[in-house]
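[Q] Does anyone have a clean structure-token version of this?
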Amino acid sequence: MKIAIFGASGRTGHLVMEMSLQGGHDVVVFARRPDNIRLSHERLTVIEGTVADRERIERAVEGADVVIELMGAVSEGTVNIIAAMKKHRVQRLIAASALSVRDPIDRFQLGRLLLLAMVSTIIPRNVREVRRAAELIRASDLDWTLARVPILTDKTGTFSKAGYYGHGTVGMMLTRADLAAFMYKQLFDTRFICKAPAVSSGP
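[A] Here you go.
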């Protein structure tokens, strides 16, 4: 399988990249600062570019079986990635989103509402951007999965839980290791195609 990863220079993206290479896949990573990709491998290709660089985004996407997007609140990049995927007929998109993105299956969960109120006050632009990116992905005709992420930590990974807020399944903490493992697992798991599960760490 050939995997294109956007946001691989971040901590979570680097873990996904390592997992993909260890799994025997060919990996293309798109990075604004290639020097931050601290890994060399015969099956790894690094493409330098920004989210506004449509031509280089297309180079990263062309020939891929799956695109994994971990850039965060950058809706401009989402527009260009979706356009590149449609041009090159790449159907599967696995993207990291945030708890600020709502889903019809969600129910009331006090912890989520309190955290969302805080985040909306501190970084309102990011909240708008991540919601816009989610709208764009949901409106596409791709086989997408949106992993809605709460508070990220660098603690040791345990295992990831996926579900919907207010159902007693997921909490407000997620390690980067568990997020990376969840994103990688979606390469083979079809349960969340065209769905937006909330993800947290166990137990």
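[Q] Thanks! Anything notable?
[A] The longest strand covers residues 92-98.
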